[in-house]
Amino acid sequence: MTKAEFLKALEEKLSALSAQDRVASLAYYEEIIDDRMEEGLCEADAVAAAGPVEEAAAQLLAETPHAETRLCAQPKRIEPAGSFLLFTDPFDAVEIHAACADVELWPSEDGVCRVEFQEAQRCAASVAGGVLHIQELRRHRVGLTLDLSIGGHQLLDVPMRDNALRVYLPARTYRMLRAETRSGEIEVSGGLSFDRAVLRSASGDVEFRAAVQSELRIHTASGDIEVKHAAPERMQLETASGDVELSGCGASSVTVRTSSGDVEFADCDETALDIRTASGDIDGRFSVPRAVSASSVSGEIDVPRSGSGAPCVLHTVSGDIDVCVK
Prior knowledge:
alpha/beta, 3 domains
């Protein structure tokens, strides 16, 4: 199925929605498909990754207040009285697609999986194929809290900063985390564990402190990136104008690309580093001697020339490079 066919089929199933809701919903799914294609998927695979048309329509119709038709996105979803939902289906992966919300992920202290929304948001959530899907559709004035526990335990409310979408996950290693937001920030707290994590934000900052095993990829346009104590096999960080900060990372290899942003790293002693920036500066600190290969077209360079360990390649066009051993 092509993107155009998917969107046409989805539009036909959303006839019960207002014109404004249909336009917003179609634009959201179009962006999801475009993002997958930017990551290297062909059009058909990108459409398939967005999920079945019927499931997408069911979610949108069920979660839109003015829809004339109400459909249940999941057969096992229980909808009790009050502004929360329960899911009994297990999941080992998390996908979050937000428009302008800040996305926060935190460990659950009592084993309850819960998703909280700020009151000016329109969100939908479901479990399908072992994946917890969370989507911010559009903004409105009604607040919503989703409790995704099996037992429905009563939890204390935790104050959230404005514009936040907060997810509490029980302790385990999840197969995949994918979180995307256009203008919001993303924060992944320590105490969580993933095999792979892919995070994208257009203008918001990204902060990652969780454990990750095989791969961590973070991309922003103008937002800053901060990674602490992550040790995957591969780490790839990209930003156009944002800064990048690494500390205590034990990844096997780290690739950093920026255009105008600065890069700082510290205590990444056993990591193979490949850092390149156009006009940004590169500042680093090792706790053991490391041989550094550094180059700059017009900037100044001050790096250790002797040492051992994994390769460390640093390049900037007009920025300075300063690396020390402490």
